[in-house]
Amino acid sequence: MSVRESNQLAPARLVTIVIVAAVFMTNLDLWIVNVALPDIGAGYAGAHGPTSLSNLSWVLNGYAVGLAALLIVAGRLGDRIGHRPVFLAGVGLFTVASAACAMAPNLGFLVGARVIQAFGAAAQLPTSLALLLATVPDAKRATAARGWAAVGGLAAASGPVLGGVLVQASWRWVFVVNLPIGVASLLIGYRLLPRPAARERQPWPDLTGAGLITVTVAALTGALVQAPEWGWTSAATALLLAVAVASGVIFLWRSNRHEFPLIELSLFRVREFSLANIAVLLFSAGFAIMLLSNVLWCQEVWHYSPLRTGLAMVPGPFLVPIVTILTVRAMRRYGPGRLAAVGSILFAAALLWRVVFAAIRPDYVRDLLPSMLLGGIGVGLGLGTLIAAGVTALPPDRSATGSAVVNAGRQVASAVGVALLVTLLGSRVDATNLTGFRTGWLLAAALAVAASGLALTLRATPVSGAAPDAAPAPEGERGRVINA
Prior knowledge:
- By secondary structure, the protein is mainly α.
- 75% of the residues lie in helices and 0% in strands.
- It contains 19 helices and no strands.
């Protein structure tokens, strides 16, 4: 049976629900776990007191690092053996890992289960859009793609509240909630998902390269997170930094010489792609600092409950998909550079607002609410526009690979942002460390301003296709790009 015939038989709406539910689940986990983090630490508190923030942050960093490392590999596997089996395998792995997280007896076990969760998410995200587009008529593909992109914003808006509600019972429920979604997606998806043909001649991805980039990110993040406890000049910190540098250099060398590299380095010779990627990295690191610092501030300084924290954080994420949709024409008229620059400046202003108005005594309307509103508009204008500018700077046959690279970079930047905040706060995550919080907000604002400066250097052209000077495909098989 052909793909088109299969699509006609499958109830398109039900297939769409399956795919969107699975993608929503993986995005939701990022937001729910942020809200639940203080309760997780309290749950694992031992005889020596609460779990340290540096150790606890690995509940977030383990997920971010695992997702970043496996996105490109999983996407290429999907192209080689089929999007459907890779997607379903990812849903299954994510669901099993969620159950393991819910039952984790200690923090180390939880972090390990979170890494496995990330592997499942990495298999889902690159293959989900391809499956979704295979289920709809050609005339509705653009609408389907926009809907898929809006899932992250919907998860961001509902995650804090849902997380707050679930944590009232137990932090373990933030992982239990994934189980019915995952099981339903598996059962329905197995019967109804389309079966696009795989390109069996494509080679296996460079798994050694995937291992090297994983070691690089983990070692760098580990050094940043643990340095406050170990000391910046300690042998352990120096060793981790040396490992990060060495593995990163070997990865670049291998990518330049390998016949089928994990990341084709020639992609970064495309000016718009490189600039947009750097801007996304800066913005994403600042965003991670903002998100975790607000959760910690609400719960540890203002002593909000998890539910109240979730409600307090809703306005910003809620605005992101709305602003993104309402500014489609503006992006076409003014180009991605100007729009992203304005968004980055607004995001920086949101952080500076907190630097000026944050106070130990709770004052949500004067302090946090204006910052959340400014930040939501800034993220809606900036982050999505930068991602689109990077991906569409490449020729169509490389857009999927570009998307995987951009999203992998976002996860790396998120891990680094969390590590930087933990380094600045140290062990005093309470009302006595206003200086640490303000320094974190200033750093995040500086990152956003730098992203704005890079955005202004992007060509003022609509995001509608490949850049005219996109690098030509290398001759022969060396450096061949496989769509992820």
